[in-house]
Amino acid sequence: MVLTLLDGLYPDNIGRRVAIVGNGTVSLTTYTNTVGDTVTLNNPRIYIDVLFGGFSTDGTMYAIVGPAGSGVRQTWKLYYYTAAGAQVTTAAQVNGKIFQLGGFGGSF
Questions:
Q1: pTM score, whole prediction
Q2: Which of 55, 92, 97, 101 is the least buried, fewest Cβ under 10 Å from its Cβ?
Q3: How many whole angstroms separate alpha carbon 69 and alpha carbon 54?
Q4: 40-84: per-residue pLDDT in tens?
């Protein structure tokens, strides 16, 4: 998912870090619930320190966020679940869903 930062509001500087909030639409050709969906930002000059999950804008799905490893400047992945708690297993179940996510990052 490409997270598009809310124009004119983010990134918002907080000392040497930035707050980030943006929207992203899921558009996957394949999805494996053990691999997840990699998150990138529409601004390549910002890296993600931490990202927080949340519900889709229609309230039918939620995303749990996890790093792909440990250490600084990790790749972040989304793992999708239905509102009832079942883990999503195919791209068709989640494609087209819009999520608004936030977190903190830094500048390259």
A1: 0.89
A2: 92
A3: 21
A4: 999 999 999 999 999 999 999 999 999 988 888 889 999 999 999
CA dihedral sign of residues 32, 38, 42, 44: negative
Taking a C-beta distance cutoff of 8 angstroms, is the pair 53, 65 a contact? yes
Contacts of 76 (CB under 8 A, 6+ apart): 38, 39, 48, 51, 65, 66, 67, 68
Cis before 44? omega within 30: no
What are the tokens at 32? 């494996």
Band of the pLDDT at 29, cuts 50, 70, 90? confident
Residue range 85-105, pLDDT digits in tens: 999 988 888 999 999 999 999
C-alpha span between 94 and 105 (Å, rounded): 26
What tokens does 44 get?
């390549």
8 A C-beta contact, residue 39 and residue 48 = yes
